[in-house]
Amino acid sequence: MDLEIRHLRVVCAVAEAGSLTRAAVSLGMTQPGLSAQVRRVERLLGGALFERGHAGAVPTSLGELVLARARAILPGIDQLLADTDRAARRTACPARVRIGSVGAPLLGHLLLAVRDLVPWAELTSRCQYAPAPLLDDLAAGRLEAAVLGDHPGHELAPHDDVILHPLVTEPVFALLPADHPLAEREEVSLARLTEEEWAVPRPDSDRTREYWTSVFALTDLRPRTPYEAEGRQLIEIVRAGLAVSLCQATFIEVPGVAVRPLAGNPLWYRHVLAWRRDSPLAPHGEAILRRVHDGYLSSCATGTTYARWRERHPHAARPRSSTP
């Protein structure tokens, strides 16, 4: 019989338990079966490894030598087995990287970064209006990464298993019908805008509506909000000339609508990248942030209204590219 790894584990288990009976329980073996195995190992190694008595099993000098070597060898064996297991599972079933996103200009850049940096991963994405459910999915392991967003005073709640990295805080702009008189101006007063009828998102876990309301309250004006809508539907209401609204600074103007800065920059939106600490993306955090940061700057350059605003306010919305 040759010495095997399992024999070393048996010797260590007996020494740690201090008795054959307790070691048998921890190993899921019967006490007679464990005793027989210890005797076989002792015959193989040429001497007694334990002195057995009423006090339990105490290592002999030979036993101490074997234990010292076993305790040095086994951690390396365990690490080898863990590494090869992960490699085998990766080959048999590629790592999944599931990415969620709110409506923001970062998703495409994040997907491209992940595809380049983790090419073996099975990459999928899904979008949702509100960030809170996406953050819950991250914390629960249903997503590996997400593009999120929040507002001052309404920041996303931290989770122990999730890294939140704020990328940039940018101003919120006015969304107007293209033929609206205010669209002729370089920037729009929020007080003047609140005199119009509004299309607003419904109050939910996104908290955008709550944030807008808190800022409106500071003006002592209450806009009329007959239209509740999000995404494409909100844009269509504005395009039809029925209402005004707000949008991200990076929103790309489409025919029929105009995007204008708000005078004094009273509202802000923060873009946040998030990933699980144990996700395949964690080791590539710096590289991902750098690529998404560069992609964001590229998106800013394509939105003429925001590009002009950034020229006038070069330090007001500077991306943060360092990891926490």
Automatic annotation (TrEMBL):
Protein name: LysR family transcriptional regulator
Record's keyword annotation contains Transcription: yes
Family according to the record: Belongs to the LysR transcriptional regulatory family.
The organism of origin for this protein: Streptomyces cellostaticus
Keywords from the UniProt entry: DNA-binding, Transcription, Transcription regulation
Keyword Transcription in record: yes
Gene Ontology terms, MF aspect: DNA binding; DNA-binding transcription factor activity
Gene3D superfamilies named among the record's database cross-references: Periplasmic binding protein-like II (3.40.190.10), Winged helix-like DNA-binding domain superfamily/Winged helix DNA-binding domain (1.10.10.10)
PANTHER family noted in UniProt: SMALL NEUTRAL PROTEASE REGULATORY PROTEIN (PTHR30346:SF30), TRANSCRIPTIONAL DUAL REGULATOR HCAR-RELATED (PTHR30346)
Pfam families in the record: HTH_1, LysR_substrate
Highest taxon of source: Bacteria
Domain HTH lysR-type: start-end pairs: 1-60
GO CC annotations on file: protein-DNA complex
InterPro entries hit by this protein: LysR_HTH_N (IPR000847), LysR_subst-bd (IPR005119), WH-like_DNA-bd_sf (IPR036388), WH_DNA-bd_sf (IPR036390)
